[in-house]
Automatic annotation (TrEMBL):
Source species of the chain: Bradyrhizobium diazoefficiens (strain JCM 10833 / BCRC 13528 / IAM 13628 / NBRC 14792 / USDA 110)
Catalytic activity: ATP + protein L-histidine = ADP + protein N-phospho-L-histidine
PANTHER family with a match to the protein in the record: HISTIDINE KINASE (PTHR41523:SF7), TWO-COMPONENT SYSTEM SENSOR PROTEIN (PTHR41523)
MF term (GO), any: ATP binding
Name listed for the protein in its UniProt record: histidine kinase
Transmembrane segments: 299-322
EC number, as in UniProt: 2.7.13.3
rRNA-binding in keyword set: no
Positions of the CHASE domain: 129-225
Keyword entries, A-Z: ATP-binding, Kinase, Membrane, Nucleotide-binding, Phosphoprotein, Transferase, Transmembrane, Transmembrane helix
């Protein structure tokens, strides 16, 4: 009996120890899985929010870039952009054209607003009080046009934003920094309207240094934050930039309100930072379930079962330990696969959106109102062939860049047989390849329109060099058309001028210039080598193509 008791006691003790160890193990695993699931859900959510914000900021930049020579007194400035801004489907509340008017232009602006059919054409401040032009010494920002036009929005044109603290600060910063800028959270449409943010993009005519107005888009905050998901593992809050310790939260109806966080209150489970309108915004994530309590409850159940079946605790522990190890590895492999899949989808979405945005801009600018349909068709086909060629080259290289000389293939570049190409055969990044392919096509497509005085076709040279070392390497590109003069060469199209002077240099982070010499036409582009090659893109592609391995 003593021996049996000793054995029973030993089994009971062993069962208690194993049950306790199993409970501890399950507790840690539940906590780890909950944290992994929560962290992954937060990362996916933050990535989606950043994508939405990037789309909306891109819409503002594209809209402002489509303005060629805007007339500030025109109350239907958004008419040419109406189809473009709706094509993006970015669920904006109001899109507006805010003109920067001189005091002597107020009367003409008021007449233009009245002629456009808006019910309140008088120029007034944001509190609807009339503005006396004689009291002004500086230009003011006045809303001249908006979209959509509804009973709720038709009364807004004619308002000046100069005395509104939020909107005036946003426009002032956009004017100084000359880029798209987001405002603080502010009620939209009316004082008790939905809370949202406004992004303003300055419109700067070619050759000017100061903006003549701004394209603005307002968005409800709840839709930007993606807050109305009842099945989510967390609740999301936006840190209020107007108040220390303040947060903006939305209920299940999408109504946003402000709350203050106490010093001894619950802290967010995680925070993420997203960029929008030239500033950083902090999202706080609060877990909806208590992972520690749930893990403790699970551990208690496991321990109770272990104590109740002490005779089988060793076998049970071995079985549970084996299955837990296998399950842990399967979960880690699955999580790794899902993360890789999410990264691949995000990268594909990003690249497809960029290509679609470029093609949309090409079509819009080529088939503009009043353009020669035959010439526009040829240019459009050629530009799309250039885009198709670079996409094919990038696809063949798994989007790790293409050789620069490969962009001069005859199937994509007109008169490629008459272009003398020299320079190191460097591999440029996907982003640089798209910009350079369109750039080479625009240069080549305009090179054979006229003949020189001696009747010879232009002779073209394209050469590039790389100077400097390390992070100071600089890419120099020079295109020169001999036997060409300003009188014989076809003028560049509107799209071509924007591409040559703004889009291509900005995409590569460099500068460009074009001019005529006594015997030739020259275009030069200078950019830092780190943006032309973009090793970060190559590294990211390598990571996406790497096989998934279980974490041990």
């Amino acid at each position: 009996m003593v021996r049996l008791g000793f054995i029973i006691g030993f089994i009971a003790l062993l069962g208690a120890m194993l049950s306790g160890l199993a409970a501890y193990r399950v507790h840690d695993q539940e906590l780890a899985l909950d944290r992994i699931a929560l962290a992954r859900a937060i990362d996916v959510h933050a990535s989606l929010v950043q994508d939405r914000l990037t789309e909306r900021e891109l819409l503002a930049r594209v809209a402002s870039g489509l303005f060629r020579a805007p007339s500030v007194l025109k109350p239907n400035m958004l008419e040419p952009l109406r189809s473009a801004i709706y094509a993006f489907k970015t669920d904006f509340v109001v899109a507006g054209w805010v003109a920067r008017l001189q005091p002597n232009e107020l009367a003409a602006a008021q007449a233009a607003i009245a002629a456009a059919g808006f019910p309140k054409p008088q120029i007034r401040d944001y509190g609807d009080k009339p503005i006396d032009p004689a009291s002004l010494t500086q230009p003011i920002d006045v809303l001249m046009d908006l979209e959509p036009r509804s009973d709720e929005t038709k009364g807004l044109p004619g308002r000046s934003y100069d005395r509104d603290p939020v909107r005036s600060a946003m426009l002032a910063r956009a004017r100084i920094e000359k880029r798209s800028v987001a405002s603080d959270p502010v009620p939209l449409l009316r004082n008790n309207g939905p809370v949202g943010v406004i992004v303003a993009a300055p419109v700067i005519p070619e050759g000017a240094t100061e903006p003549v107005g701004f394209i603005t888009f307002s968005y409800e905050l709840a839709s930007l934050m993606l807050t109305n998901d009842d099945m989510s593992l967390f609740a999301v809050a936006l840190k209020d930039p107007r108040k220390d310790g303040g947060e903006l939260v939305a209920n299940d109806q999408g109504i946003v309100s402000t709350r203050m966080t106490a010093a001894d209150g619950p802290a967010p489970s995680a925070t993420r930072t997203v960029s929008f309108g030239g500033r950083d915004w902090q999202l706080g994530y609060y877990a909806k379930t208590n992972s520690a309590r749930r893990a403790e409850q699970t551990a208690i159940i496991v321990a109770a079962i272990g104590f109740a079946i002490t005779a089988m605790v060793c076998g049970l522990f071995g079985y549970v330990a084996y299955n837990n190890l296998r399950l842990s590895r399967e979960i880690q492999v699955r999580i790794g696969f899902e993360r890789r899949l999410t990264a691949v989808i995000d990268e594909l979405n990003h690249r497809v959106k960029n290509i679609l945005a470029v093609i949309q801009s090409i079509v819009t600018r080529t088939l503009r109102h009043g353009a020669d349909i035959d010439g526009a068709r040829e240019l459009l086909i050629g530009r799309i062939h250039a885009m198709s060629n670079v996409v094919s080259l990038l696809s063949e290289s798994q989007w790790q860049g293409v050789k620069l000389k490969g962009l001069f293939e005859a199937r994509a570049i007109p008169h490629a047989d008459r272009i003398a190409v020299t320079g190191p055969d460097i591999a440029v990044s996907a982003r640089a390849a798209q910009s350079l392919s369109l750039l080479f096509f625009e240069l080549a497509s305009h090179s054979d329109e006229g003949l020189s005085l001696v009747g010879k076709h232009p002779h073209i040279t394209a050469n590039w060099t790389v100077t400097g070392e390390g992070t100071d390497e600089v890419f120099h590109f020079r295109w020169e058309e001999f036997n060409t003069s300003e009188a014989t060469r076809r003028p560049d199209s509107d799209f071509g001028l924007i591409l040559l002077d703004r889009v291509a240099p900005e995409a590569l982070g460099g500068t460009a210039k074009r001019y005529f010499t006594d015997v030739s036409y020259v275009y030069e582009l200078i950019a830092p080598m780190e943006t032309v090659v973009d090793m970060s893109e190559r590294d990211r592609t390598d990571k996406l193509s790497a096989p998934v391995r279980p974490v041990r």
